[in-house]
Design brief:
The complex is a heterodimer.
Chain A: E1 2-4, E2 9-13, E3 18-25, E4 28-31, E5 34-41, E6 44-47, E7 52-64, E8 67-69, E9 72-80, E10 85-87, E11 90-91, E12 94-97, E13 102-108, E14 169-171
Parallel strand pairs in A: 2-4, 3-5, 4-6, 5-7, 6-7, 7-8, 7-9, 8-10, 9-11, 9-12, 10-13, 11-13
Antiparallel strand pairs in A: 1-2, 3-14
Chain B: E1 5-7, E2 12-19, E3 23-25, E4 28-35, E5 38-41, E6 46-53, E7 55-58, E8 61-68, E9 71-74, E10 79-85, E11 88-91, E12 96-102
Parallel strand pairs in B: 1-3, 2-4, 3-5, 4-6, 5-7, 6-8, 7-9, 8-10, 9-11, 10-12
Classes of the chains: A mainly beta, B mainly beta.
Chain lengths: 214, 111
């Protein structure tokens, strides 16, 4: 069920899909349907608003806008967006909970007492799709997959090399019972935020001279 | 910031604190705090307390138990080791937190 794009590779579990079992791979995974079991990724898990994950999750980044029941282990960051609901424990160096999200469980970011007051990196977790022109000063209100802030000169941005050739996702899937929705459809919130601050060009009214000839 | 009670930078409070006013903590508070209003712990502030309040905004260090009727928010500068029970909890990117969070989570019926 892998949908390959030229610039990034991501697997999409469509809205009508149910996967029971283990899912592992080296691609972004977008869950619009349901996954029961376990998920192990070297990349980003995105649970869309319609998505339900009931699993032990081990990933690099997780962006949760749907429902997750189970423990999430992330090597980088976990973000619960406004629509996100989660019951379980989170273990990640960076955890972001946005107003509106609901959560019950333990959060462990490591050794809190002996950490620097400010983290060395401030870019938001994101899917590996190359970011468009950085949005100008949008922060809290930005969508979950917002572009990284460009002001931080010393922030190191890890961009995984797009080696689509070696990327593979092992999926054990039961044949879909109903008519599947198109997996190629990208969830709307993943669309890159439009560049802000650019003055909109109003349509110029052109004066027209019509010469009628007799 | 002038409104309500301010525990200044050089002040240490040990014991119980009750009241119906906003509280701003720049110094240090240890013990039990019960307030009907809003608590702000500034970056220089430190609270080691069992806190019962309407809402709390942490920019500094907080440890203990936090019970809020509304919102608990941890800013990017916050260092918090606590169990939080509140209908709304916000953790900003950069905040350091360890502990339990209890919010009401509405799950689909089959989960």
């Amino acid at each position: 069920m892998a949908t390959r794009h030229d610039d990034d590779s991501a697997t999409v579990i469509g809205e009508s899909m149910l996967i029971q079992g283990n899912l592992q791979g080296d691609e972004d995974l977008h869950v619009l349907g349901r996954v029961d079991g376990s998920i192990e990724l070297q990349r980003t898990l995105v649970v869309a608003e319609s998505g339900i994950v009931k699993a032990e999750v081990t990933v690099k980044n997780a962006i949760i806008s749907g429902v997750v029941v189970g423990n999430v282990h992330a090597s980088e960051a976990v973000e619960l967006t406004r629509e996100g609901r989660m019951v379980g424990d989170i273990n990640a160096p960076r955890v972001i909970i946005v107003d509106g999200a609901s959560f019950r469980g333990n959060v462990d970011m490591g050794d809190v007492e002996n950490m620097p007051a400010r983290p060395p990196r401030t870019e938001r977790p994101r899917v590996s799709a190359p970011a468009p022109a950085p949005a100008t000063r949008s922060r809290a209100s930005a969508p979950p997959a917002a572009a990284p802030k460009s002001e931080d000169a010393d922030a190191t941005v890890e961009v995984p090399a797009p080696d689509a050739g070696t990327a593979k996702t092992k999926v054990q899937i039961k044949p879909p019972s109903g008519g599947g929705s198109s997996p190629k459809k990208k969830p709307a919130f993943l669309d890159p935020p439009k560049a802000r601050g650019l003055p909109k060009k109003g349509k110029k009214k052109r004066s027209r001279v019509v010469v009628k000839r007799k | 910031m002038a409104e309500g009670c301010v525990i200044g930078r050089g002040i240490q409070v040990k014991g119980n604190l009750t009241g119906g006013e906003d509280l701003t903590v720049e110094g240090s508070v240890e013990g039990h705090v019960t307030l009907k209003n809003h608590i702000t712990v500034l970056e220089s502030g430190e609270m080691q307390a069992d806190i019962s309040t309407h809402s709390l905004e942490a920019h500094g260090r907080v440890s203990g138990q936090i019970d809020a009727q509304d919102l608990v928010s941890l800013s990017a500068q916050a260092h918090v080791v606590a169990d939080i029970r509140a209908p709304r909890v916000v953790i900003e990117d950069g905040a350091r937190f360890k502990g339990r969070i209890e919010m009401d989570v509405e799950l689909p019926p089959d989960l």
